[in-house]
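Input (structure):
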């Protein structure tokens, strides 16, 4: 019996997610079955064998819903359908069936904070006018000033500029993100009921879990008069430490947890219960609230992603993250890359203090990066992450060692951040460039035609075809690591061991030790059988930017 079929026998385990490895797919950039340059569901289905061979436990699909792509698919026009450019509901069902046949769970993205401005409800709201029931599903307000010409508050959009947009009849609506993404009013019972319907719709189609976008922003203080914040930066993450916890007018309010307790009752009605993970950009102690068993159950750990390549800082973040997860009754989560951040093969070698936005604006030239050094560090970071107790979330292409495509020409950029910030921030397109599957072809095997974002020529050397079966390749490193991890997992604890400065050492149970050398010098290897290394040993010693797994 294979390891994968053993996993299938435990597919009804309600706790399968606690130490799962989840692979994030950005559908438009994974694989293109019809050759139109845009990734689609049938393309994903055809490539699921890659994920099974990689050894992940689940795949997470970023939005595949009808969308005009004002925000890369996170502007959802219908949360219970498939964008026709990406396929049909039948295609989705086929994808889920094939994933389950291969022993893979399926997680889908929910976007409950806002809809697309093309959503039927928002169009009804525009037609219905001020004071209507249709407008109450969103956040409409009269403006300030003699003629209502000023926004209702000074709240700022995450993407830049005011968080309010005026409509022809004079009222303003709230959009914490792009203007094409009006915020729902979660005090409205129709809004709550409709999202319950969405949860059941996808759960009934066999989905195993949900990733909840902007989970910390649903509940808002809409009591009159609406509160100004007094400073633009208080519309951002800084506000979460500048104000008493739970009191910000639209971020991380205490009353958001009532929504998730309601959702958990629905998710637990299925067998096995559907899992959920929160995207909540909040401090650790507040993040634990979203991960409680009677709420979503798990939350992304962004402190880990945001920590630099420093042993002492990482040790502290790991310790704090495990403590926070334990307090919530959840397992910890670890992530190095996703669809919103610079890929870690590039990010981890940016000099300390580098502004990623400025670096992207320079096309990746100021400073220029050593791609080989970045890959070495990324491989070491990956083995460190995969040795930690909890769930690891991988982002498509990191198993190939893909760097950030920082030099995309500005004329091809799709991310609304570019326009909304007046060309000050280049945005997130550089981590969303379609994957290379083959070493040749118009889009390196992504599809039979081109790709919606141009791939650099260097992608050929990173392609799956170039790395498959190649000793020492990053792809084979991931495959080996995930195979070993499945065998070695034992509990959700780690024990720190003494180590030289710049080195992390910890034990996982009785049979597994991890040593990560983040220093600039080679260090002695502790006793034990070498199971896997991110880079070759140097005369039996652990070189800089190298992680080793040892059997005990």
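Output (sequence):
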């Amino acid at each position: 019996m294979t390891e994968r079929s053993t996993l299938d026998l435990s597919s009804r385990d309600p706790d399968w997610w606690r130490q799962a490895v989840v692979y994030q797919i950005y559908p438009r950039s994974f694989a293109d079955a019809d050759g139109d340059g845009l990734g689609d569901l049938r393309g994903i289905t055809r490539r699921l064998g890659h994920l099974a061979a990689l050894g992940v436990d689940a795949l997470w699909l970023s939005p595949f819903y009808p969308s005009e792509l004002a925000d890369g698919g996170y502007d959802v026009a219908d949360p219970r359908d498939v964008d026709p450019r990406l396929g049909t509901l039948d295609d989705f069902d086929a994808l889920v069936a094939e994933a389950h046949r291969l022993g893979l769970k399926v997680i889908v993205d929910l976007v409950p904070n806002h809809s697309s401005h093309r959503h039927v409800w928002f169009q009804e709201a525009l037609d219905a006018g001020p004071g209507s029931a249709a407008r109450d599903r969103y956040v409409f307000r009269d403006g300030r000033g003699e003629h209502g010409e000023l926004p209702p508050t000074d709240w700022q959009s995450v993407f830049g500029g005011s968080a309010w947009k005026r409509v022809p009849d004079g009222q303003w609506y709230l959009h914490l993100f792009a203007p094409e993404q009006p915020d729902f009013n979660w005090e409205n019972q129709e809004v709550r009921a409709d999202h319950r319907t969405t949860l059941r719709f996808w759960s009934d189609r066999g989905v195993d879990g949900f990733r909840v976008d902007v989970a910390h922003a649903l509940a808002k203080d809409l009591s009159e008069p609406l509160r100004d914040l007094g400073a633009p930066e208080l519309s951002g993450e800084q506000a979460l430490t500048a104000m008493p916890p739970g009191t910000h007018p639209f971020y991380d309010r205490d009353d958001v947890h009532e929504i998730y307790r309601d959702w958990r009752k629905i998710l637990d009605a299925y067998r096995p219960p559907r899992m959920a993970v929160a995207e909540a950009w909040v401090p650790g102690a507040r993040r634990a609230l979203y991960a409680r068993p009677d709420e979503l159950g798990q939350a992304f750990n962004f402190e880990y992603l945001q920590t630099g390549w420093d042993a002492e800082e990482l040790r502290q973040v790991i310790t704090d993250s495990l403590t926070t997860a334990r307090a919530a009754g959840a397992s910890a989560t670890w992530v190095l890359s996703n669809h919103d951040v610079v890929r870690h093969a590039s990010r981890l070698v940016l000099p300390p203090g580098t502004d990623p936005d400025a670096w992207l604006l320079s096309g990746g030239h100021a400073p220029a990066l050593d791609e080989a050094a970045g890959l070495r560090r990324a491989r070491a970071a990956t083995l460190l992450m995969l040795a930690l107790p909890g769930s690891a979330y991988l982002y498509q292409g990191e198993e190939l060692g893909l760097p950030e495509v920082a030099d995309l020409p500005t004329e091809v950029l799709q991310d609304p951040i570019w326009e909304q910030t007046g060309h000050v921030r280049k945005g997130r397109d550089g981590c969303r460039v379609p994957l290379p599957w083959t070493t040749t072809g118009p889009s390196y095997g992504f599809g039979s035609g081109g790709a919606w974002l141009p791939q650099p020529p260097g992608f050929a050397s990173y392609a799956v075809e170039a790395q498959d079966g190649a000793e020492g390749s990053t792809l084979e490193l991931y495959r080996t690591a995930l195979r070993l991890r499945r065998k070695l997992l034992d509990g959700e604890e780690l024990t720190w061991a003494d180590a030289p400065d710049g080195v992390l050492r910890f034990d996982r149970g009785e049979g597994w030790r991890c040593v990560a050398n983040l220093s600039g010098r080679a260090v002695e290897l502790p006793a034990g059988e070498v199971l896997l290394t991110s880079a070759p040993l140097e005369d039996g010693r652990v070189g800089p930017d190298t992680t080793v797994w040892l059997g005990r």
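Notes: The first strand starts at residue 21 and ends at 25. The CA atoms of residues 481 and 523 lie 22 Å apart.
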